[in-house]
Amino acid sequence: MKLPLTLSFLLLLACLKLSAQTKAIQFGIKAGIATTSLSRTPGTDIKLDKADKSGFGYFAGAFASLNFNRFSLQPAVIFNSSVNKTTENIISGDIVYRQYGKWHLYYLQVPVNLVYNIPVQGGNFYMGAGPYITKILSGRFTPDPNPALPYAYGVPNFPPFNASFSGINSNFKSFDYGANAVAGFALDNGFMINAVYNLGITNIQGNDRYLYESTKTRSLGIALGYKF
What we know:
By secondary structure, the protein is mainly β. It has a single domain, classed as Porin, CATH 2.40.160.20. The protein is about 10% helix and about 65% strand. It has one helix spanning about 1-20, and strands at about 25-40, 45-50, 55-70, 70-90, 95-120, 125-145, 160, 175-185, 190-200, 210-225. It has an eight-stranded antiparallel beta barrel. Strand 5 and strand 6 (about 125-145) form a beta hairpin. Mean pLDDT is about 80; it is low at about 150-155. It comes from Mucilaginibacter rubeus. This is PorT family protein. Keywords: Signal.
């Protein structure tokens, strides 16, 4: 019994040493800021006074890098926040309800990118792309405290409320799928900087389709990181 355990332990040490020498497997952390937006197609009962605007969000997480010569497979787990500014008039018969403010969404994203590395003096440039899956954790609508337009038909702006992800009046779906692209530079000492673009493919619009026909996510960010 002791001999197999000893051999297994020695094999594990050998694998760890080989991985450290060849950097076949590395781990890292990263964090950054991003411009985020919801690309939305209005339904029959909504009028946009202005185009929806992007806001600033943040993200942070950890990743692994499985290295094969100049290629790397990089799965990650990232916590994201997004902000989207909206200016809407919701039409209900002869009454128009105002909804001016910001949507804040918080979600967990798992991307898997295939990355190509280009060695240069002091480090390497890299670029890649891949799919991702997102689980939306929570969301909240915050009204504009000083809207530019007066109350529509005497009806005040919507109060703050939490997003719903189920039921007939859900605001959003719980899951999102898409693709992202990344490009950056990694120093030999482990520090790195990159830009990342996320393109949501899935329509995450909830069941209140009379407001919006479709809603898709977009973001463009910059991050700093460190690879061990």
